[in-house]
């Protein structure tokens, strides 16, 4: 139950019916409106967080296994038969036991006191770096709903009746009854 002392100044303006006295004799509809409050929910949407997305480059060193071939010079001294290599690149030909000869690219080179340079082939590895798509990241937002309870204090008006006794009642109207209209009842 709400009385006028519990209302703040804002409520006195909006709930004037609480503190008014109603004279039902003047009210032709005999209707008294009692007010009640009800909750109105307003949902606001605001920016809660700001998320920054960026890419960073992480470097790491990896070992790539590669098999490489190289040529080495192999000299065999064979005194019985002169041998020819299958690919005719390098072979030793000995016509004379004291003066060996080499066959390099099908050319005879005599081994003597001066050094002979023979080019040998070798493989080296060059690593090129290729950029590929390693991963795809899909970005999206998702609405997640959850129930919450919001406490709200609601007020309502109730009809209060009380009898007010006057010390000196005010006469509103008086009616005179003629003595002949008065019926006396005897005991």
Would you give an account of this structure?
By secondary structure, this protein is largely without helices or strands. It has helices spanning 9-14, 16-19, and strands at residues 90-93, 101-104, 107-110. The protein has a three-stranded antiparallel beta sheet with strand order 1-2-3, with no helix packed on it. A hairpin with a 2-residue loop joins strand 2 (101-104) and strand 3 (107-110). The longest helix has 6 residues, at 9-14. The protein starts with 8 loop residues before the first helix and ends in a 77-residue tail after the last strand. Residues 1-19 have low confidence and may be disordered.
């Amino acid at each position: 139950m709400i009385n006028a002392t519990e209302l703040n100044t804002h409520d006195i303006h909006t709930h004037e019916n609480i503190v008014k006295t109603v004279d039902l004799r003047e009210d032709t509809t005999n209707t008294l409106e009692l007010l009640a409050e009800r909750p109105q929910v307003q949902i606001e949407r605001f920016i809660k967080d700001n998320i920054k997305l960026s890419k960073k480059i992480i470097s790491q060193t990896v070992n790539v296994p590669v098999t490489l071939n190289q040529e080495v010079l192999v000299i065999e001294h064979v005194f019985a038969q002169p041998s020819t290599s299958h690919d005719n690149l390098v072979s030793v030909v000995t016509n004379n036991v004291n003066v060996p000869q080499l066959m390099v690219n099908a050319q005879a080179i005599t081994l003597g006191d001066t050094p002979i340079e023979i080019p040998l082939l070798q493989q080296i590895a060059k690593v090129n770096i290729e950029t590929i798509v390693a991963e795809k990241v899909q970005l999206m937002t998702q609405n997640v709903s959850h129930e919450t309870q919001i406490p709200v204090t609601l007020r309502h008006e109730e009809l209060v009746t009380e009898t007010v006794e006057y010390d000196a009642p005010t006469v509103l109207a008086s009616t005179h009854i003629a003595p002949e209209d008065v019926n006396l009842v005897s005991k």
